[in-house]
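Sanity check record (used in CI):
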Amino acid sequence: MKGVRKSDLPTKICPVCNRPFTWRKKWERVWDQVKYCSDRCRGEARKGAGRRDGPS
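Expected output for DUF2256 domain-containing protein:
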């Protein structure tokens, strides 16, 4: 049998949705920089970073 079982791949927790996500082949070279499980969560994080509590 070739390959690696999915259960043996590294995982991280997404800081936006708090769900675990698994290593993907397309992230092979940049796994250390990957923070979010999806484009949607990355977008939500960017939206949240720019928000303020009320007008100034």
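Residues 11-44 form one domain. If this sentence no longer matches the regenerated tokens, the check is flagged for review.
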